[in-house]
């Protein structure tokens, strides 16, 4: 696999049929979503949440998550989209920010839980293992779009980037860190941790309410640490604040929010 990554330049288009192009990016997203909901449906029976409820929620999560991810990216890259307004809806070109999807997803789950009279933390704990797996698969879309790669590297798993996709400052470099792969493997690890915790609790045949809170907090902390560290080697343009890249700021906010959640009086009452 290492040799393949080091020598292969992936095409953005999977196949074409006349004026219609099917992109690898879209296939990765759809595959990630399908895998996520497979895990969610598997766990739902143990959470005693009906399949109909998950079907209803899935529509809002998919549509709302995509909208949130796109709005977030457009706001981050606002000067670019002001100059290229026709690209705002061109999601097949990339530009779906996971932090935007997470924020939108949390809001949607909260509203849905209130409407259906379901514990918000219970519903969140059910969703996040699938979310982590979906992220692990979906990140491969960045590989095929040759975007969000890291700094130049001489490591044997460095990926070649087409000269048209290289930033001007790195125009003479060929191989770059495959940050998509690092994040994919990190998210896969997070998924395994969360899923195995669920298996452990299922075997005990009892889901304590505190487990739901800690599952959400654990995901927020683990993913935020992963994303914070990866931002040190990314070279895509993003706003800076206090000497840090914007995704690092958001990651720190998520970690702080998770810690406050885990040790809040509300969390302690979930026993």
Topology:
Blueprint (H helix, E strand, L loop, with lengths): L1 H6 L5 E5 L2 E4 H24 L3 H26 L1 H6 L14 H19 L3 H19 L1 H6 L13 E2 L14 E2 L2 H26 L4 H22 L9 E2 L2 E2 H17 L2 H4 L3
Antiparallel strand pairs: 1-2, 3-4, 5-6
Structural class by sheet pairing and helices: mainly alpha
**Portion in beta strands:** 5-15%
Number of domains: 1
Output the strand order for the largest sheet: 1-2
Radius of gyration from the alpha-carbon trace, in angstroms: 19 Å
Distance between the termini: 46 Å
Low-confidence stretches: none
Overall helicity: 55-70%
The dominant shape is globular
Q: Please report the total strand number as a whole number.
A: 6
* Count of DSSP-assigned helices: 11
What about the largest sheet?
A: 2 strands, antiparallel
Order of helices and strands: HEEHHHHHHEEHHEEHH
Mean pLDDT: 90
Keywords:
65% helix, 271 residues, mainly alpha, two-stranded antiparallel ribbon
Describe this structure in words.
With 271 residues, the chain is mostly helical. The chain is 65% helix and 6% strand. The protein is built from 11 helices and 6 strands. It has a two-stranded antiparallel sheet. It has a two-stranded antiparallel ribbon with strand order 3-4. A hairpin with a 2-residue loop joins strand 5 (240-241) and strand 6 (244-245).
